[in-house]
Design a protein that fits this description.
Blueprint: H1 3-27, E1 37-43, E2 46-50, E3 53-54, E4 59-60, E5 64-67, E6 70-77, E7 84-86, E8 93-96, E9 101-106, E10 114-116, E11 122-123, E12 129-130, E13 136-137, E14 148-152, E15 158-161, E16 169-170, E17 177-179, E18 187-190, E19 193-195, E20 204-205, E21 215-218, E22 220-222, H2 228-260
Antiparallel strand pairs: 1-6, 2-5, 3-4, 7-22, 8-21, 9-10, 9-13, 9-17, 11-12, 14-15, 15-16, 17-20, 18-19
Length: 264
């Protein structure tokens, strides 16, 4: 059978995964702190028909090798900074700067913290700072009853006022922010959460006084870094590549049909 049939099928399978990834990016265009993904491809093995040679009997500097298709090698997460949206909510916090930081989240069932870029902070009935799913942001303590005007400073300190007092109080430690040597090695587990892995490196806590590469912006949210126009161009490219590979299969089938009809 013709190699082109199987080679083109690998191209169609690869572009199908590419389309799935683009669809995931587009679906999360409004997800707070979402980081888009990109499929990376590699060519498959080559079948060598004739090797190049340079000796007394034969001087052929170029050989003859046929490639056998493509495969997806990785789906890489691109951690470029998303646009900041002003919300006027003092509990919304966006991480910005040249450094890449993550909020530490305490999630039941996990021995180690999980991490997120989602700074849409809520306060539950017990006065704890939580995510939309009720998971605790690590660092601040519970806010006491009767608190008012909660705010978050540029260093992550949570402040509030008590009744009959004009002196701001702090809720324990600041929000814990961590950095990784290889953020692309973090494992996505959904709900805007990441899990550290051996490939991501150890989590290093951000020290506001010593590290100016990260800043916190109260009253802002980091939006998704998905660029709709760019994704549409990638979508068209993936669709056309899928069509081209299907045309190769049709053309190969036509050639086989011609060969099968030689006796007629």
């Amino acid at each position: 059978m013709m190699r082109a049939l199987y080679t083109a099928s690998t191209g169609m399978n690869a572009q199908q995964l590419n389309m799935d990834t683009l669809a995931h990016n587009m679906a999360n265009v409004n997800t707070t702190g979402f980081k888009k993904q990109r499929v990376e491809f590699q060519d498959l093995l080559y079948q060598t028909i004739r090797r190049p040679a340079a000796d007394e009997d034969r001087n052929e500097p170029v050989g003859l090798a046929v490639g056998l298709g493509v495969r997806p090698a990785a789906i890489n997460t691109l951690f470029a900074q998303g646009n900041l949206q002003h919300t006027e909510n003092p509990l919304d916090v966006a991480i910005s700067g040249t450094g890449l930081g993550f909020f530490a989240i305490e999630v039941p069932g996990y021995d180690e913290p999980l991490y997120t870029r989602d700074g849409a902070i809520k306060i539950d009935a017990s006065g704890r700072l939580v995510t939309a799913d009720g998971y605790y942001y690590m660092g601040p303590e519970e806010l006491p009853e009767g608190y008012t005007d909660p705010t978050i400073g540029t260093d992550g300190t949570v402040s509030y006022l008590l009744p009959d007092s004009t002196e701001p109080q702090t809720a324990g430690e600041p929000l814990q922010i961590f950095k990784f040597s290889n953020p692309a090695g973090l494992q996505k587990i959904g709900k805007n959460l990441y899990q550290a892995t051996p490939n991501s490196g150890e989590a290093v806590q951000w020290e506001p006084d010593d590290d100016s590469t990260i800043s916190l912006n109260s009253g802002y949210l980091e939006m998704s870094n998905v660029q709709v126009v760019e994704e549409m161009v990638n979508l068209i490219t993936a669709q056309r590549a899928y069509e081209f590979n299907s045309k190769v299969i049709q053309s190969s089938d036509d050639m086989l049909q011609t060969a099968a009809n030689l006796r007629r």
